[in-house]
């Protein structure tokens, strides 16, 4: 009998190289696809953020004229490189200097930031219990509760703000209801005050706070709360030591989603706050449409953007360093 020796065969490895040392065709396609996926967000930011910002920034360095468009210089491709260089020499920072000389703009910025900050805090106070209750609700009810939070988006934003006028005005539903209960003897003046603005912003932007908070709380392991209470921790202490720190990403995301648009809000202060309300959104609208001063209004918009973007960038860098540490 002849003995046969088994020759081991190496398992086939999905190739990293093709004949000739070239990468396999599938790897090339995957590499190109991954690069395109990364490139799409940058193209989106380039087309819809950077290019419009550069246009507004250029207008902010222009001079007001009675023409169409109401500023100069106006760059044209027909002028060639020499015309472009001549136009660049006409740009000026006088509009930014003008903003520093008029206290109206500084007061509008400060008022807008304060109103947005208070509104964001109130939205957090209202939204956190809602998101916590949704996260602790049975799984069969969470979809329904989530739909109820999103439901206001199915109605026009302007119609919802107008509805609050009917509720908050002196002869509105709220005052009539309080008078009927005997809580007040005379109608309350809520319209055309900061209180009406806070109510409008909290109501309008509440879903933007609830949804990120719910996303954070829904993923949390609530057995940690039970373990903390078994170790002698009170429910209040367990909330501040476990629940709230774990939900901080949702708190920060919700606060940014509310604070950033609230700073530049125009419709709610105009309809509920009245003509005496000083916010940068209304000031910006007046410069564009009433004064037709596009360069100054563009300078106001650029500074507003910097006020909002710069702190966010520093915060993200601090968060990245904390995660690396």
Q: Calculate the terminal CA-CA distance, rounded to whole Å.
A: 69 Å
Tell me the series of helices and strands, N- to C-terminal.
HEEHHHHHHHHHHHHH
Structural class: mainly alpha
Compute the number of strand runs.
2
Unreliable residue stretches:
1-16
- The number of helical segments is 14
Identify the CATH homologous superfamily.
Answer: MetI-like
CATH architectural grouping:
Orthogonal Bundle
- Helix percent band: over 70%
Average predicted confidence as pLDDT? 85
Q: What's the structural domain tally?
A: 1
Instruction: Tell me the radius of gyration.
Output: 29 Å
Could you tell me the CATH topology label: MetI-like fold
Shape, per Cα inertia axes: globular
Order the strands across the largest sheet as they lie in space: 1-2
Query: Beta-strand level of the residues, as a percent range?
Result: under 5%
Major β-sheet annotation:
2 strands, antiparallel
Structure report:
The protein is an all-alpha fold and 325 residues long. Helices cover 71% and strands 1% of the residues. The chain is built from 14 helices and 2 strands. A hairpin with a 6-residue loop joins strand 1 (63-64) and strand 2 (71-72). The chain is globular. It starts with 24 loop residues before the first helix and ends with a helix. The model is unreliable at 1-16 (pLDDT under 50).
């Amino acid at each position: 009998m002849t003995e046969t020796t088994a020759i081991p065969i190496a398992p086939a490895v999905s190739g990293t190289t093709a004949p000739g040392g070239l990468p396999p065709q599938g790897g090339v396609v995957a590499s190109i696809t991954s690069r395109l996926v990364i490139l799409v967000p940058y193209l989106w930011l380039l087309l819809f953020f950077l290019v419009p910002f550069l246009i507004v920034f250029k207008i902010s360095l222009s001079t007001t004229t009675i023409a169409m468009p109401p500023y100069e210089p106006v760059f044209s491709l027909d002028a060639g490189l020499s015309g472009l260089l001549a136009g660049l020499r006409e740009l000026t920072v006088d509009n930014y200097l003008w903003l520093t000389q008029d206290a109206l703009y500084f007061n509008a910025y400060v008022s807008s930031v304060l109103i947005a900050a208070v509104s964001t805090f109130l939205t957090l106070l209202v939204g956190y219990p809602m998101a916590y209750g949704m996260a602790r609700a049975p799984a069969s009810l969470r979809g329904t509760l989530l739909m109820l939070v999103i439901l206001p988006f199915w109605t026009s934003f302007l119609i919802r703000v107008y509805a609050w006028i009917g509720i908050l005005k002196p002869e509105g539903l709220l005052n009539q209801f309080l008078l009927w209960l005997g809580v007040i003897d005379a109608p309350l003046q809520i319209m055309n005050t900061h209180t009406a603005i806070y109510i409008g912003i909290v109501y309008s932007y509440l879903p933007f706070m609830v949804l990120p908070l719910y996303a954070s709380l829904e993923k949390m392991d609530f057995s940690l709360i039970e373990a903390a209470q078994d170790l002698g921790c009170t429910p209040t202490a367990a909330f501040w030591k476990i629940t709230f720190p774990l939900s901080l990403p949702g708190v920060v995301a919700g606060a940014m989603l509310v604070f950033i648009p609230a700073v530049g809000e125009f419709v709610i202060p105009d309809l509920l706050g009245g003509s005496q309300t000083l916010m940068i959104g209304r000031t910006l609208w007046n410069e564009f449409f009433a004064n037709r001063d596009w360069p100054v209004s563009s300078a106001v918009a650029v500074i507003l953007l910097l006020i909002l973007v710069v702190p966010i960038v520093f915060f993200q860098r601090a968060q990245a360093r904390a995660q690396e540490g």
